[in-house]
Structure formats: structure tokens, C-alpha cells
Amino acid sequence: xxxxxxxxxxxxxxxxxxxxxxxxxxxxxTEKQPGFGIRFVDFHWQPELFDAMEKGGSTMPEAKRNWMxxxxxxxxxxxxxxxxxxxxxxxxxxxxxxxxKGLAIELRKVDMRTVLEVNVMAPAPEGVTVYKGSARFETVxxxxxxxxxxxxxxxxxxxxxxxxxxxxxxxxFAR
Length: 175
Prior knowledge:
The protein has two helices and ten strands, in the order αββαββββββββ. By secondary structure, it is mainly beta.
């Protein structure tokens, strides 16, 4: 019993003195095109954290793991940079520059029932990687204060545009 109390005291004193309060102003957004839909949360732009992910080698835990940017649901088959994307539920995840090769984007088939609501960009749930490639973000003049993802479509493709801060990542899902 004394040992258990000692462990609890040690854990309590190791906890940070300041509790991080959950953001109360985040909203979930949905964008749709025929056969294709996304859902994402408009997380605040965090330039220091994004910079740490982009450069790699950071000691920040959040900069060393993937971020689930959005849930994608396909109701028809697509291709992403030549990779077949069957009908299903996917996590669109951003990977940090851990190996010096730059940021990467992953499309992972997942069981979305395992995803919990969180206050930060959560890691993508376990699943099967369908696509992983270079995340070719462009730097733009205007800074978006929050994550924003737009979907536009046509007969031949669905264009997805991720905007986070002063970065823009276009992705094309061909029909």
C-alpha cells in the first residue's frame, strides 16, 4: 500500500503544473463531391509546430508523429498519383520530415469507428496504407488562421486543396 501511494505521489508531482485547456472554438466541416467526401476539424495554425515538422529533428512530440488531417470517404473508385483508391474510409495523414526527405502525405484505409474526438490533430488510426508520397506544400502569401480543406470536382477528377497557415497542398483524385 505504501509503495502504491509513493507511485501516485511521484506521478502527481511529475505532472505539468499548467493544464492545457481544450480549445472550445473548433468546428467540424464536411465537403462533398459525387462519390467523394471529406470531414475535418479546423485546427488553429501553429507555425512553430509546422516548422518543426517540416525541418525534422524536433524534440516536440507532436512534430515527431503523423497528423490526421481529414477523413475521406470514397463511394466510387479513384486514383491518386497512379495509385488505385478503392471505395472505403480513409485517413489523410501528414507525416513529419523524420528521414530528411521532407514531409509526406499518406492515405490510409481505416476503421473510423476507432477514432476518438481529440483537441489536437491526432495520429491516424491503425489501418492499411493505400498511398504514401511526398507532401509538396506550396508557400502562399495569405495565411489561413485555421486548417481549411476544399473539394472541387468535375467529370474526370476531384481536386482536394489543403490550406494550413501559409501552406497549400493540392491533391488530385482521378475518376
